[in-house]
Amino acid sequence: MDFIVGLHSVVRWLVVIAAVAAIVRYVVDLVGNSPDAEMGRKLMMAYTILLDVNVLLGIILIVGRAIGIGQILPVWIEHATTNIVAVIVAHIFAARSRKMDDPKRAAKWRLGGVVVSLLMIVAGVAVVGGWS
Questions:
Q1: H helices of the chain, where?
Q2: CA–CA distance from 54 to each of 11, 21, 35 (Å)?
Q3: How far is the C-alpha of 45 from the C-alpha of 62, rounded, in Å?
Q4: What is the pLDDT of residues 69-85, one digit of tens each?
Q5: How many Å apart are CA 90 and CA 68, to the nearest integer?
Q6: Which residues contact 46 (CB under 8 A, 6 or more apart)?
Q7: What is the mean pLDDT of residues 118-127?
Q8: Residues 94 and 88: beta-carbon distance below 8 Å
Q9: Do 23 and 115 meet the contact criterion of CB atoms below 8 Å apart?
Q10: pLDDT at position 132, please?
């Protein structure tokens, strides 16, 4: 399980890096004259894929630890639920933005999706003790 915990932690920081890169890109897209829709789409895809991977690792951790100690702690369920909802939110915003013809409007939706899901993730991580 230690390897999965380490991997879950590494992917967590990759999520943060992808989120920061995406936020910067979407703000540039909104302020600039010619938004790069393809780059925005790829950043959102990278962000959601990293979220998916981390949720999968988290589920593996919960199941593995539950088998190991014979119970599931409520804090694990709160953490998982909050973060799964955050991933769903990110996917909804990503899917909605893919259908938009206006690159600036798509950038707004992507920015909103990253910010809202990231705020939910921060809340979900706080439940288990923060970012340490």
A1: 2-31, 37-69, 74-98, 103-127
A2: 6, 18, 29
A3: 26
A4: 998 999 999 999 999 99
A5: 32
A6: 18, 22
A7: 94
A8: no
A9: yes
A10: 63
